[in-house]
Amino acid sequence: MRSALIAEWTKQRTTPGAGWLLLITVASTVGLGAAVCAVATDQYDTVRLALSGVYLGQAPVAVLGVLAASGEYSSGLIRVTVAAMPGRSVVLAAKAVVIAVEVAVVASLALLVSVLVASQVGLSVAGEPVLRAGAGSAVYLVLVALLSLGVAVVVRDSAAAIGAVLGLLYLPPILTAMVTDPGLHRLLERAAPISGGLGVLTAWSGGFLVFGVLLFRSRDV
Amino acid sequence: MTWPRLLQAEWTKFRSVRGWAGGIAVAALLMLLFPVVGLAGGGGDKQASAATLGPDGEPVSDSYFFVHRVLAGDGQITVEVKGLASERGTPWAKAGLIISAGPEPGARYAAVLVTAGHGVRMQHDYRYDRASSDAAARWLRLTRRADTIIGEASADGQSWSRIDTVRLPGLATTVRAGLFVTCPDRVQGIGTASDTATAEFGTPRVMGDWSPAAWAGGQVGAYGARGGFTPSANGFTVSGAGDLAPATRGDVPVAAAAGDLLLGTFLALIVVVVVATLTITTEYRYGLIRGTLSARPRRGRVLAAKATVLAGVTFAAGLGATVVALPLWLRLIRGLGIFVFPAPPGVLLRAEVGTAAVLAAVAVFALALGTVLRRSATAVTAVVATTVLPYLLALVPFLPPPMAQWLTRFTPVAGLAVQQTLIRYPQVDSVYTPADGYYPLAPWAGFAVLCGYTALALAVALIVLRRRDA
User: Fold this and answer.
1) Which carries the bigger pLDDT value, residue A174 or residue B168?
2) Cys bridge to B59: B51, B70, B196, B435, which one at CB 3.0-4.6 A?
3) Sign of the C-alpha dihedral, residues A177, B127, B98, B431?
C-alpha cells in the first residue's frame, strides 16, 4: 500500500494539470464567495454566504477526481499501472487516499480564506457555527472528489464522467425548484448530493467507488 | 478542399461515432420526456379554479374597495382626490373612479385613477394602462357613452385633458360606478408585505340617470377585510387593499407557465456540451487532428466546418424535440386541470426555436473551449460552470436577489430568456425572478449575450488553433 501511495502521489505531483486545478479551486471558491459577500448584508444567512464559493469550487475538484482515473485511461498509462501493481483495489484505494488528502488541505485553505474575506467586508461570521459549516464544506469537497473518482473509474471517459458528475451536482437543485409535487420535491431534495447532507453524499461517493472497484477488478483495462 | 467537401467530412466524422449521434438523440429525448417529472403531483380541480380570469382569458387580480351607485345609460362622474397614502408607501396604491361591467370576478371595467408614485392614469380590462401627461392632476372624470368610456384629468377642476378613450364591448345599460381604492402588496427584496391605502375624496358630482339611493360601499373580490369607507362633511374617506391588474406568477403559484415545460433543457445542455467538446478533444486525444489539419491546412475553415455541423445537428434535434414537446405537454397538463398562463402561438414558437438555438450556441461554445483547452474534462467543466451553474446560483434562495438579476443578465445563462412565456407588465410591481419564469433581458437580447460569449470563445479558439502546433 505504501508504494502504491507513493506512486499515486508522484503521478499527482508531476501531472501539470493537477497543480493548476488546485489553484483554480482556491481561486474560484474564494472569488465567488467574495463576490457574493460584496453584495450581501447581515440580513442574510452570513455563514452560508461566506461559504457559497463551494458551488463553483466543487467543479475543479470534480475535474481533479475525474482526471486521476480517466487521465490514465486516455493515455494508456493504466495498463502500466495495473501491470506494476496487480492488486487493483489497492491502486484505487491509493488514488482515493491521495486525492482525499490533497483536496482536504486545499479545501480547508480555500474556505478559511473565504471566511476571512467575508469578515473583512463586514459580515458577522465567527464562532462555532462557521467552524462547523466550514469543516462540513471541506468534507463535502473531499466527498465530491471521491465521487468523481468513482464515476470516472466506472465510465473510463473523462468527458462523460465529468458530465455525469456535474449533472449529478448541479441539476437536482434546478429540477427541485420546478417540481411542484411535495413528495417528489422532498425525495429529490433528500437524494441530491448537494442538498441531502453529507451522509447522502457519502452514500453516493461510496456507492460509485465500490461499483468502480468491482468493475475495475473484473474488467479488462 | 472545397467548403461542401469540408462539411461532408466533418458530418461523416460526427455521424460515424455512435456515441455522439446517440448523445444528441438522448438530449432531444430528455427534453421531450422530462416534463413528466414536474407533473407527477399535478391535477385536481382546485388548481383550475384558483385563478380569476379576465376578459381575455388571462389570470387577473380583481379586488378593491368600491363605493358605488347604479348608473343607467349614459352619464358622467367627477371627483377630486384630495389625498392618497398607504401604510407602507406602495407606489402602485390606486384611488379614483371606476365603471364596472358586473359583480362577477374578472369583469370588464374602465377606471381613471391617481397612484401614489406613478402619476395619474387610465386603466381598463386589467391589462391596459395609459399615463396622463399631467401627473400632478387631482381631479378625475369618467364619461360613459354607450360602450365607450372617456377618462379625463384636471389640475383645478376647470380645464380638462383627455387621458384615453376606451371601449368595453357588451357593457350592459345598467352598471355600477363610483369611487374605488386598492393597494397591492409592497415588494421588499425577495418578498412582499401586505399594504392598505386610504384616500380622501371630495363629494362626487354626477350627471345622467343615477339611482337615487345613497352611496354604498363594499369589498370586491376576496382580499381580507381591510377596506372601508366613512362619509365626511365634504366627501368620503375610503380605504382598500388588493389590486386591479394582470396577475403575475407570484399571485397564482399553482399555475404553470409554458416555459416550465422546457425544463429538460438543462439535462439536454449537459449532454450536448459533452458531445460538442468530444468532437474536438478526441481529435487531439487520438492525434487525428494532425491528419485533419494536414489534409486541410486552412485551420479556420476546419473549425468553421465543425461548428456548422455541430450547430446544425443540435439545432435540428433541439427544434424537433421542442416543437413536439411544448404543444403536446401543454395539451396534457391542461387536460389534467392545471391552469397554464396563456401565451400566444408566436411566443410559444419563439420559445421552441429559441431553445433549439440556445442548445446550438452552447454546443459551438463548447467546441470553441474544447479547441482552446484540448482536454475534455476541463472543457466540459468550464462550459457547464458558465452555462448551468449561474442559473443554479440564480435559483438559490439564500443568495441576494441582485445577484440573480446580475447572473441572468451578464452570463451565458442570459440566453434562456428565450424561454420566457410570461408577460412582465410595467404597471405591476412583483418579485420578477428567473425561478418564476421572468428574465431581466428581452428574449433575443438575452440570446445575443450568449452569442457574444460564443463568438468570443470562437475567436480565441481560432487564434490559438492557428498559432499553436497541433
Assistant:
1) B168
2) B51
3) positive
Q: Is B435 on the interface with A (CB under 8 A)?
A: yes
Q: What is the pLDDT of residue B349?
A: 95
- As a whole number, the mean pLDDT across chain A is 87
Whole-number pLDDT of residue B40: 46
Distance from CA of A86 to the nearest CA of B (A): 26
Query: pLDDT for A103-139, tens place per residue?
Result: 999 999 999 999 888 888 777 777 788 888 889 999 9
Q: What percent of chain A has a predicted confidence (pLDDT) above 90? A: 39
- State whether B132 and B195 are in the same domain: yes
Interface membership of B378 toward A (CB under 8 Å): yes
Does one domain contain both B80 and B175?
A: yes
Flag if B378 and A182 touch (Cβ within 8 Å).
Answer: no
- Which helix or strand (DSSP H or E) is residue B391 part of? helix B389-395
Using CA of residue B131, residue B134, residue B140, residue B141, what is the dihedral sign? negative
Q: Buried (b) or exposed (e) across B334-347, using 16+ Cβ within 10 A?
A: eeeebbbbebeeeb
Residue B217 belongs to some domain of the structure? yes
Residue-level pLDDT at B371: 94
Cβ within 8 Å, pair A167-B378: no
Which pLDDT score, from 0 to 100, does residue B39 have?
Answer: 56
Q: Is the pLDDT of residue A194 over 90?
A: no
Q: Do A158 and B375 touch (CB under 8 A)?
A: yes
pLDDT tens digits, A53-101: 899 999 999 999 999 888 888 888 888 888 888 888 898 999 999 999 9
Tell me if ipTM is over 0.85: yes
Whether residue B289 lies inside any domain: the answer is: yes
For residue B450, tell me if it sits in a domain: yes
Largest distance between two CA atoms of chain A: 58
| pLDDT the model gives residue A147 | 95
**Three-class secondary structure of residue B444 per DSSP:** helix
B274 to chain A, minimum CA–CA distance in Å?
Answer: 6
Separation in Å, CA of A181 to nearest CA in chain B: 4
Helix/strand/coil for A85: coil
Domain membership flag for residue B132: yes
Which residues are bridge partners to B130 per DSSP? B122
Domain that holds residue B322: 3-44+252-467
Task: Search chain A and give the residue with CA nearest B392.
Answer: A174
End-of-domain residue from the set B246, B265, B289: B246
Q: Which of A36, A46, A61, A162 to mutate to test the interface with B (most CBs of B within 10 A)?
A: A162
Helical (H) or strand (E) element with A165:
helix A158-178
* Number of domains observed in the structure of chain B: 2
Query: Residue A60: which of B38, B381, B400 has the nearest Cβ?
Result: B381
Residue B224's pLDDT is what? 63
Alpha carbons B16 and B309: distance in angstroms, whole number = 13
Query: Which of B246, B270, B296 is at the close of a domain?
Result: B246
Please list, in sequence order, all residues whose beta carbon lies within 8 angstroms of the beta carbon of residue B299, skipping any fewer than 6 positions away: B293, B462, B465, B466
Q: Which residues of chain B have pLDDT under 50?
A: 40-48
